[in-house]
Amino acid sequence: MENFTFWTPTKYVFGRGVEENTGELSAAMLGGKVLLVYGGRSAEASGLLGRVRHSLDSHAVEYHELGGIQPNPTDDRVYEGIDIVREKGISGILAVGGGSVIDTAKAIAAGALYDGDFWDFYCGKAAIAKALPVGVVLTIPAAGSEGSGNSVITKLDGMIKISIRTEEVLRPRFALMNPELTFTLPPFQTACGIADMMAHIFERYFSTTPGTDLTDRVAEGVLRSIIELAPVVMDDPCNYDARANIMWAGTLAHNGICGTGRKEDWASHAMEHEISAVYGVAHGAGLAVVMPAWMTFMAKNRPERGAQMARRVFGVENPVDTEAAIEGVMKLRKFFKSINLPTTFDGLGIEAPDIDLLVSRLHANKGATIGGYYPLTAAETALIYQLAI
Amino acid sequence: MENFTFWTPTKYVFGRGVEENTGELSAAMLGGKVLLVYGGRSAEASGLLGRVRHSLDSHAVEYHELGGIQPNPTDDRVYEGIDIVREKGISGILAVGGGSVIDTAKAIAAGALYDGDFWDFYCGKAAIAKALPVGVVLTIPAAGSEGSGNSVITKLDGMIKISIRTEEVLRPRFALMNPELTFTLPPFQTACGIADMMAHIFERYFSTTPGTDLTDRVAEGVLRSIIELAPVVMDDPCNYDARANIMWAGTLAHNGICGTGRKEDWASHAMEHEISAVYGVAHGAGLAVVMPAWMTFMAKNRPERGAQMARRVFGVENPVDTEAAIEGVMKLRKFFKSINLPTTFDGLGIEAPDIDLLVSRLHANKGATIGGYYPLTAAETALIYQLAI
Predict the structure, then answer these.
(1) Quick one: which of B44, B107, B98 has its CA closest to B74?
(2) Whole-angstrom distance, CA of residue B236 vs CA of residue A55
(3) Which residue in A4, A16, A217 is closest to B224 by CB distance?
(4) Measured by CB atoms within 10 angstroms of the end CB, which terminus of chain A is less buried, N or C?
(5) Using a CB-CB distance cutoff of 8 angstroms, which residues of chain A are in contact with residue B146?
(6) Would you call A228 an interface residue with chain B, using a CB distance cutoff of 8 Å?
(7) What's the rounded Cα separation, in Å, for the pair B228 and B222?
């Protein structure tokens, strides 16, 4: 096991009606003047934004708004938010939405306190030393951004999609998580969220660090729970307990508890980021395509972890690692198909992917080799993209 | 699933040599003048206390000392600590040790800022509104106090042992966890710690709340990991990875992650507290005696959770709940015996336990019925104590 720091100060308030606490927690943790960041029509139409505004008003929290944040959020909205923060003297950022909204809120929170261009943090020119406090009302269980110190933003110039991770400074101060808010998520978005949270665990599970048995067992437990409850939320979208377990799983998948003490991988995320940057697909759907292809490559080249996952999570009994790992990939693909996710480029609506473009962008943005479990060269990432056709 | 709040702001710094960060973290999180609380000879003899003092000196943190805290810590040392805090103007408490030391530090931290008698918090007369910050250098993985908001103190007058829980205010600001510091723990103390952490999970696992599948899976994962690695640390006390996994398991067992979203039990802890208060036994050894007896009763009266645990943690295949639960108890007793823990009063050195005394104290201190999974009357707690003979 490697040395690690695990620091998750987020106050999770979870359950029915918890969005009623928005005003009280914002007043206590975000200060008296917040920037309310949100996405599209659904939060307005459902009445959620109205309840949030009312709760802020009730606690005398002044707010300004930045709405219309899109999936795969872009730098232009971050600059816009930073301008509002500076102009209005905003004391904290309140994100109402899913990962795209939260990641935008985090970028604004850090960028507003930085003299240079916020993109410096994403392109590696600067580290985030401080940020305004961020609070969250979560509506989409997927990205895990409500509990993570991470943020993913796409730079419009060149459509460069970059993920950053901080130990603690970008972790939200609070996250209000009402599973009922997810009852109306469309099935495809629910399924994409499930693929995303599973991928967050896989990226941590495929590791060369020995002796992290406890972290393995926790990660396998979260995976098993997701796999068992995914069919329930797909069949019965208003099943409170199933939605609640899936929502909490999305947080545990990405707050770091499934990765303590070991080197991680993250090649599949990097490979998917290029697909969604170039083709504009949903991140979760892209992951459902890339991860099995990546695992197929690993079954041949480094099968140990895939075999353990196949046995412990999917109940595969084959004693030969390479074969067990391949059986695990087959079961994973079958699972993704069962919740109507694509598992090939074709299913993403990309009939002839430009693999040369994806590979050249990938290694230009992320380096000569990609991934901590097995560092992939350009020839190898090209092969994995091929395996996804 | 029930609504819950999960708030664990503790900064865990885990791994080899992390005690070298004591001065830096104390200066940042405990203020400039700390009370250094510790236990007996081992921390001094091993050189740990010397390294801690050196680290404090290096960061210009002034410290005063309160040493010699005993297992099953008592209120007299808390009063002594509170006096030092007030006299010296202490800004934070640094605990170097295991649960007894940390729990004493927490009681001092809360009591020093309270106008009345700190025991008011333990006997239910007052709730803790504020406390000085507490930091930890952990030497014994067992109580989980390094990550919990809990504290257990025994009042010498009447030997009343009471546990309290706060949501966040008593959680340590940081916990420095170096598994190497546990290499020299005596085998009995190692085993007692293992029983204690398992009990912390069982108390949360035996629940009447439906629909907490994810929490189940996480709890089962931590239990499995403990059961697999316990023989390794017993046979090979200097095995770093095994010690590291056991140490981290002790934290996860009690920081709340194994209990999210459900009602908990805690009858076994209450029953054990009377045994250790009356007979002065080690808490973990007492739990190894009480928990199987309690589970035996439950196998007959409410077998569902015991059966699930038996199947998922111990691999029992019996489809009949009552029988599966009993098989689980047998495997648990066998496990405790394998790490040389007692499973009967006799093994604790108590040949003729005064069950009437234990039962009358228990219900006088904790109420007419005990436990959230199955509220036990005095006749039933007497029967369970009988089952432990």
Answers:
(1) B107
(2) 57
(3) A217
(4) C
(5) none
(6) yes
(7) 10
